[in-house]
Queue: 2 jobs
Job 1
Amino acid sequence: MTADRGSPPVREIGVALLGLGNVGAGVVKLLEDNAAAIGARLGGRLVVRAIAVRAPGKKKRLVEVDPALLTKDIAGAIARPDVDIVCELIGGDGEAKDAVMAAIAAGKHVVTANKLLLARHGTEVFAAAERHGVDVYYEAAVCGGVPIIRVLREGLASDRVEQFHGIVNGTSNYILTAMAAGGRAFADVLAEAQRLGYAEADPTLDVGGGDAAHKLAILCGLCFGATIDADAIHCDAISELDAVDFAYAAKFGYVIKPVVIGRDHPRGIEARVHPALVPAGWLLAGVTGAKNAVAVDSYALGPSMYYGAGAGMMPTAMAVVSDLIEISRNLRAQLTGVAPTRRHRALARRPLLPMAEIRSRYFLRFSVADKPGVLGQLTTILGAHDVSIEQVVQEAPGDGNRPAQVFVITHEAREGDVAAALGKIGALPATLAAPRLIRIVV
Ligand SMILES: NC(=O)c1ccc[n+]([C@@H]2O[C@H](COP(=O)([O-])OP(=O)(O)OC[C@H]3O[C@@H](n4cnc5c(N)ncnc54)[C@H](OP(=O)(O)O)[C@@H]3O)[C@@H](O)[C@H]2O)c1
């Protein structure tokens, strides 16, 4: 086919890929598989000029690439004059951070999927981008393929987000979904998730909440214009949950989900990561397996929810390539660096609201001696700390030998008061195990 006479030559946008793992390989595959559609939308071609990896000689790759593209030399790949955009898909905040800062300093636009880097060093990265007049796009960093960054940055640009609830870690959601369905133990489901490739060999960042906290920090930046200390966000691991928690949550009409919550208060940002009871009728309760979702409450739109694949080779690559397309369009329109960080709002450093000051409803579980008067002691202590009970169920074997289990659903209370009450109940002679607390989303 020949080009129309008089039409401009097809513009090539040069890309340096840093990393050819799951996401990097997906990017190569998507650029090939969707070349025609991407070309039509872009009016140009995205061309990978170099691919930096740790081990260029590696035998097994997820995609075949021209071996001449592979290099260990990150600096060389960034510096190529035919590279316009550097796509960082290495991960972590070591070499990846150096590479992103070097690319920005060299005047190259950046696409990254790296939540850890942006949660910890976003202020530095975006300030450098503004100084050098380049774009930094990061759609894949939160919820993989779900375009939540674009929604918050553009779709809701005229609105004011009041709060959001999210399921942003697919591994944790996969594990809790399986525990709820099969009454299975955490360790058993984790081992299965690792076998199936849903969980890393070292699952700490996923099940401990660290990965979700990084995404939460990015979301708080977009929603509230707040820079918060991502490493100080309160995280409760999902590993503490027992099958009995799921069974009783279901009896009370709830599903246990691994949630992140963000709210803007005058005194600080409420940001927390923990398993929580979600009413079974909520849309978020229906987000199962490894899927992600963010439910946003905003002033003008009201509730809205964004759902899809939060990880995986092709969904994540889709988000990365969409960022490449957007920067390429900016390049063609000579609009790069106009609003360099593409943030929803200007950022200000804000404190985190102390957990003692948050207000929530709670699901409490007590293992106590099966004796008369013990239930009264529990309810008296809760009442004395302003923790009012909505429902209580006691399972007492009645033989005087085995412990009784007491399950309590509270009305909304201040977490500091609940913690003080649980401290007193934990010290009672009748209490046989540390009281359990799981928050209920309200
Ligand atoms: N996987 C997902 O579903 C997903 C979803 C959302 C976001 N992300 C983010 O995307 C990024 C990449 O994740 P991934 O799953 O693709 O990781 P991955 O499979 O572990 O791949 C990492 C790649 O980086 C290369 N690399 C590591 N250290 C390097 C170094 N010092 N110099 C040059 N190359 C180096 C590796 O090279 P070799 O191949 O030679 O070892 C490999 O190709 C991370 O920030 C991750 O958080 C991933």
Job 2
Amino acid sequence: MNFTFDTAPNIIFRSGATQDLGNLVAARFSRPILLTDKGLIDAGLVQPALDSLKKAGLDVLLFDDVAADPPAPKVKEAVAAARDHKADGVIGLGGGSSMDTAKVVAVLLNSNQTLEDIYGTNMVNGDRAPLVLSPTTAGTGSEVTAISVITSEDDLKLAVVDNALYPDLAVLDPELTLGLPRHVTAATGIDAMVHAIEAYTNIHRKNPLSDALAREALRLLSSNIVAACETPGDIKVRENMLLGAMLAGQAFANSPVGAVHGMAYPLGGIFHIPHGLSNSLMLEPVLKFNSPNAAHHYAELADVVAPGSSGSDQDKCNSFIKKMVGIVEATGVERRLTQLGISHNDLPRMAEDAMKAQRVLQNNPRKVTYDDALAMYTEVL
Ligand SMILES: NC(=O)c1ccc[n+]([C@@H]2O[C@H](COP(=O)([O-])OP(=O)(O)OC[C@H]3O[C@@H](n4cnc5c(N)ncnc54)[C@H](O)[C@@H]3O)[C@@H](O)[C@H]2O)c1
Ligand SMILES: [Fe+2]
């Protein structure tokens, strides 16, 4: 056995924690920038955190202009705002987009590297500014991953992957997710399940810690996601979702994702389809495509999501796929690319862009060619 495992050094999981954010972070910095988006302002989730920071004596700058699938120019704008403020710390409060933007701002704040310099793996030089992340979706798990996904000027989803991106502190407050709209609950929850599934089948870095985390993540997420859609105000269900998403994040941070993400990236990069929805669209075709090589792993996951399923590995693999598809359908998310305005003519460019996602495709249990990608997109058109 041979593996390494990293995660965020300090995690606080508590309902209402962000109302006490000031006290939780005051020892770390005094002039933070808080990165978030307008949707979160409108949802009323930012003001209590801001009030708490001010009450603790912090001179906080609010940057509420984070964009979904953060485009590179917007991220650079955030870095400039942080420098103008002479920020000495960074807080990301929001979904993956806000947290991923915060990570890059923390890295570039005092650096002479550019965003373009740090794309790729282990490209960050020097220290980053103190960094605190607090998720409002359950979700990307970005609060415990060393990854930031940025949309480049030519619409590619590029990643910064470096241990410097683990935050100093992750603050998980399930109350923040109580008002998540149904379609966001569904899409982000499916993204989290995909993180667990793909961590479990990574052909290079699968490891026993990620496996244990992925199984528990998938158990929590698969048994709560429909309830989170149906009874959104149930705090217990929201807690289970937030915990599940975090565990999945810890799993895939150390055993990265595969072809569902690789095939989903062009949907986000080119058409700005939300990340979770892109993943949910590609889940069924990729699971079926991977089955010849991953049936034994999917059979193990059947024990988690469909306890009592029996038969051969292939039978249990089929039960697993059926169960996952059933869950996705029950959440009510779109199931066809055409529902999102994508047409037959778009598929070749998407398949070409998917081939550029080798960072994740290389982890997949079955090699994906251009023709395979085109066939899978056609399947869900
Ligand atoms: N860094 C990582 O490890 C990692 C992993 C997976 C995905 N990602 C990236 O994260 C991004 C997606 O993040 P996301 O799915 O969390 O969505 P997001 O951050 O893009 O937010 C989606 C929408 O949901 C709204 N929202 C978020 N929380 C809310 C709440 N509690 N109440 C009401 N509205 C709320 C936001 O305002 C926004 O409009 C993508 O760019 C994706 O590539 C990163
Ligand atoms: Fe994801």
